[in-house]
Amino acid sequence: MQAALMFEVLMYLNSYYFGIFSTWEFITYMFKLYYKGYEYNLEKNMYKVVTECLTYLFFCITEICRIYMGRKSDTSDKPIFIIISLILMIPSSACIIHLLFGQIFIARLERMLCGFQLLMVSCELFFGLIHLCTFRTDKY
């Protein structure tokens, strides 16, 4: 099994899945604010709403950078892009866990999508570490 190929395939798939995932998260968050706003009690819990918005924004920025660095490692022979991509998985995973467990209200579909995103990130971490351990600069 080639870890580099699996890492690249997972990065490629995650680049498309992230677009779907982030769009869904944005739509459901707007839905929750509009229809479930009375449960948020916006006057008292405004900091929770701001925290969830900032977490989502931070997640999008780190995930875009992580996917860019992971895809860039395919075109270069330097392991630094893989290392940066693997390091950016830590805050990205923390944001996904916050989206999964730290929100006030979470939909069932949102739980499944967050779980699948965590699964993809953990598989990318596994194959990225294997690819980094077997990294060679010489090409045959």
Task: Give a structural overview.
This protein is mainly alpha-helical. The protein has one domain. Helices cover 81% and strands 0% of the residues. It is built from 6 helices and no strands. The chain has helices at 3-35, 37-40, 46-75, 80-87, 89-101, 108-133. Helix 3 runs antiparallel to helix 5. The relative contact order is 0.17.
Task: Offer a concise description of the structure.
The chain is mostly helical and 140 residues long. 81% of the residues lie in helices and 0% in strands.
List the helices and strands and how they pair.
Elements lengths: L2 H33 L1 H4 L5 H30 L4 H8 L1 H13 L6 H26 L7
Helix pairs in contact: 1-3, 1-6, 3-4, 3-5, 5-6
Q: Major sheet: size, sense and barrel closure?
A: none
String of helices and strands: HHHHHH
**Mean pLDDT level:** 84
- How many strands in all? 0
Radius of gyration equals 17 Å
Helix- and strand-based class?
mainly alpha
Number of domains: 1
| Fraction in beta strands | under 5%
- Which percent range fits the helix content? over 70%
Distance linking N and C termini: 17 Å
Contiguous low-pLDDT stretches (5 residues minimum) are: none
- Helical segment count: 6
- Write down the overall geometry: elongated
What are its keywords?
mainly alpha, elongated, single chain, 140 residues, 81% helix, 0% strand
